[in-house]
Design a protein that fits this description.
The chain is mainly alpha-helical. The protein is built from 22 helices and five strands. The protein has a five-stranded mixed β-sheet.
């Protein structure tokens, strides 16, 4: 309940779905309305371009359900996130009670209520969990499925373990990094006999997990002609660059919520043969998860989104290692350190900056989408980098400057010199202008506070440098009413033949 209230508090502070979540909702609306998994009706991003601009199929299904029921994203995403947060905290607590009852193999059972409550409390107060519960993208629902699966493994319920892991895989295939090592290690039990009846039950329920992943890849190939989401190919970099981004991502995520260090504590118990195979298996999961995140470079979002689905394994593994320590003083110090790590992310300066940026950008982009819908012709097209909220609210054809919803940039070399933001390295100004967008929204469609300037993003500079931009486009501003009664300028560039946005066109 407290975990859900944490999410409600963020909503009351004005936080809602992140821009990328609205990309999924637009796919859902298009799928429900036309039967095609596409971002646009025509042109780049339409079904003819066959590009998967989302990464979580099950979250797409849930967003489609919301669209069918007529529930707004700003309500649906936090509601599902709040429920998932509470579920995650509850099942992590239950799993910790079982795991810590005998954290040391062969040792007498010990009172584990305290450890269960401690693990649940860590998840409850985690700023990473609550923030991404509101942000969306299926991140916390996947964490909930992982938590249920780990509880089932600790309770020796192979059918429930397999079912939960199948659900987690359909959120994101990275769930295999949890399902396979935990399933295989727990299956062996203390005897390490993989041919035992218990082992066979676990292996039987691992088969649907692996089959689900195979079916998901085949569906992607059938629908989009790629084994993995297009966003993976749009954002991938040379390995050395990925590792650099990944290392910085772990440092930032540690300061924002401590998840990487909890994972390292879990890894520390991986080779301790005194610990049960379940606790040691969580160390293996933590090692695989952190290695995966470093190898793919993470992303630009706050509070370690890529790490959140693995948070139940980090917390459970770290709790098991601390509970299995020899001395009471070590256990107390370890528990205190874990709590301090998580609470570090609740620092006012971190939270207030994240809330400010969400209000400044996502909330503004929703209003921009409303203005475009009211003022632009219905057949207009808009080229923009933040395509989610603007695309969702405007319902106009969107030219994706970053190439997440079309495949035009997938084979381009990344711009490693001019762009530093992860996931924004592939771009082509010439291609964008080839599409002849009616309107161009550059610099995230915001005027910088104080300076009053429009700062074009590094990946948009080749658009401005193209002679066609200076020849065919005119810079103008529209004024948008803010909730507090003030007015905020919307800078845009219109094609010379297009009507201005300073008057309603509908």
């Amino acid at each position: 309940m407290i975990a859900a209230l944490h999410v409600v508090w963020l909503v009351l502070e004005g936080v809602g779905p992140v821009d990328d979540d609205y990309i999924v909702y637009r796919y859902a609306r298009q799928w429900l309305g036309t039967g095609t998994l596409a971002f646009n009706d025509t042109g780049p991003g339409s079904a003819a371009w066959s590009s998967e601009g989302f990464t979580s199929p099950l979250w797409l299904l849930l967003c489609t359900l919301a669209e069918a029921l007529g529930v707004r994203p700003g309500l649906w995403t936090p509601a599902v996130g709040a429920f998932s947060s509470a579920l995650t905290a509850a099942f992590v607590g239950l799993a910790a009670r079982r795991a810590c009852r005998r954290a040391v193999a062969g040792a007498p059972a010990q009172a584990s209520e305290t450890w269960g409550l401690a693990a649940a409390a860590l998840m409850t107060v985690s700023p990473s969990l609550s923030w991404h519960a509101v942000s969306g993208l299926g991140t916390v629902p996947m964490a909930a499925a992982v938590a249920v699966g780990l509880w089932a493994a600790s309770a020796r319920r192979p059918a429930a373990f397999g079912a939960a892991m199948v659900i987690a895989v359909w959120f994101r295939m990275e769930a295999l990094l949890v399902a396979l090592p935990v399933g295989l290690l727990v299956a062996q039990g203390g005897s390490c006999d993989i041919a035992s009846a218990r082992a066979k039950r676990y292996l039987t329920w691992l088969a649907p997990v692996a089959l689900s992943a195979a079916v998901l890849m085949l569906l992607r190939w059938q629908l989009f002609h790629r084994w993995l989401p297009a966003t993976y190919f749009a954002k991938r970099l040379p390995l050395a660059e990925e590792l650099g981004y990944g290392a910085r991502y772990l440092v930032r995520s540690t300061l924002e919520g401590g998840l990487p260090l909890l994972g390292l504590i879990a890894i520390a118990g991986m080779g301790d043969r005194r610990l049960t195979l379940f606790v040691r298996g969580l160390g293996v999961v933590s090692l695989l998860a952190l290695s995966y995140v470093v190898s793919c470079g993470g992303d630009w979002m706050v509070y370690g989104r890529f790490l959140v689905p693995f948070a139940p394994a980090f917390v459970l593994g770290a709790t098991g290692v601390v509970a299995g320590a020899h001395h009471r003083a070590v256990r107390f110090a370890g528990a205190t350190a874990m709590l301090v790590l998580v609470l570090a992310g609740l620092r006012p300066e971190v939270r207030s900056q994240a809330i400010f940026e969400h209000r400044f950008f996502e909330a503004w982009w929703l209003r921009v989408g409303d203005e475009l819908r009211a003022r632009a012709p219905e057949d207009a097209s808009v080229a923009v980098s933040p395509i989610g909220a603007i695309g969702w609210r405007s319902k106009l054809s969107i030219i994706d400057i970053l190439g997440l919803t079309h495949d035009a940039f997938l084979d381009l070399a990344p711009d490693l010199e001019g762009v530093e933001v992860k996931g924004h390295h592939r771009h082509s100004g010439a291609w964008v202008l080839d599409q002849e967008p009616t309107y161009l929204l550059l610099g995230n469609a915001v005027v910088q506070p104080g300076a009053g300037s429009l700062d074009v993003n590094p990946w948009e500079r080749d658009i401005v440098a193209d002679p066609r931009f200076r020849r065919d486009y005119v810079r103008e501003s529209a004024w948008v009413d803010e909730p507090d009664g003030s007015r905020r300028p919307l800078p845009y560039f219109r094609r010379s033949s297009a009507p201005p946005l300073t008057r309603a066109s509908k």
